[in-house]
Amino acid sequence: CESCYHKYKEKVIHDYHYKPEPVFFGDGKLYMGIELEVDDAGEDEEYAGEIYNTANLTADHLYLKHDGSLYNGFELVSHPITMEYHKNKMPWSSILSRAIHMGYRSHQTDTCGLHIHINRSAFGDTYEEQESVTARLIFFYEKFWAEILRFSRRTEEQANQWASRYGGVISTCKNSLDTAKKAGLGRYTAVNLTNEATIEFRIFRGTLRYETFMATLKFTHCLCSLAMKLDDEQFQSVTWLQFVSGIDKNEYPELINYLKIQRLYINEPVEGTEEI
């Protein structure tokens, strides 16, 4: 009937397999597509519409999808966006605040993750260049797994279920990539290699706390930038202390503060506020 036609034609929450043509926002080489799961307040079209309208006041930055792993919520998916655009133009603070106001939670659930997709094309013009950067990223995750796990706010059990490590030989970057490809673990890995166009970082627990959300994006951006800058030999010698002390305090204040909260930044622990 006509009323049902209009009701379902205008649904905001799409099915799980919905994937529109990507729209790229910002000028740059490296783009980050975000998947943020929210739960507890309902897979509700009206609530979803409020979040959708908050995100897309100036452009269609974000769409919403059903996710079968959630009990009572949905997934927020952004188009590919540069770090600069995420930081200065994307209304993440308003989006997260609106979700909290309506009763949604992300960190305070057992279901929600925060996944970050990076375009492989940012890593180089050739397949070999892209593979080299990918190998460094896997090496970093394997070498500093304890630190990554603390940063992610996941337990080891949660990581094993949703975003496991590859394990095996980690003596070199190349060995790490070879091990990952032979592992046959599918997409439920901390660094997911199963997508043709992107590398997906799946380890992070969901959050609606703006500072933590931005810290996670900036951490991933800093790591990818370093992996793109250094060669294998240089990258393999980097310590955790060197990595975090090389982060620009003025450019990435949320990240520095979050690292301190998680006791991952030199010897400057601070107290943080509650995760949401």
Structure in words:
A seven-stranded mixed β-sheet has the order 1-3-4-2-5-7-6. The model has no long low-confidence stretch (mean pLDDT 94). It contains twelve helices and seven strands. It has helices at 2-9, 45-55, 83-88, 92-101, 127-143, 145-152, 156-162, 173-183, 210-229, 232-236, 240-245, 253-261; strands at residues 13-14, 32-38, 62-65, 74-78, 113-119, 191-192, 198-205. 43% of the residues lie in helices and 13% in strands. The protein is α+β, with helices and mostly antiparallel strands and 276 residues long.
Which characteristics define this entry?
alpha+beta, 43% helix, 276 residues, seven-stranded mixed β-sheet
Overall spatial form: globular
Tally of alpha and pi helices: 12
The average pLDDT value, as a whole number, equals 94
Helical content stands at 40-55%
**Strand adjacency order, main sheet:** 1-3-4-2-5-7-6
Order of helical and strand elements: HEEHEEHHEHHHHEEHHHH
| Structure summary, number of beta strands | 7
Q: Main beta sheet, described?
A: 7 strands, mixed
What is the distance, rounded to the nearest whole angstrom, between the alpha carbons of the first and last residues? Answer: 41 Å
Class by SSE composition: alpha+beta
Q: How many whole angstroms does the radius of gyration measure?
A: 19 Å
Strand content: 5-15%
Poorly predicted runs: none
Short account of what is shown:
Helices cover 43% and strands 13% of the residues. It is built from twelve helices and seven strands.
Write the layout of secondary structure elements.
Layout: H1 2-9, E1 13-14, E2 32-38, H2 45-55, E3 62-65, E4 74-78, H3 83-88, H4 92-101, E5 113-119, H5 127-143, H6 145-152, H7 156-162, H8 173-183, E6 191-192, E7 198-205, H9 210-229, H10 232-236, H11 240-245, H12 253-261
Parallel strand pairs: 1-3
Antiparallel strand pairs: 2-4, 2-5, 3-4, 5-7, 6-7
Helix pairs in contact: 2-4, 5-8, 5-9, 9-12
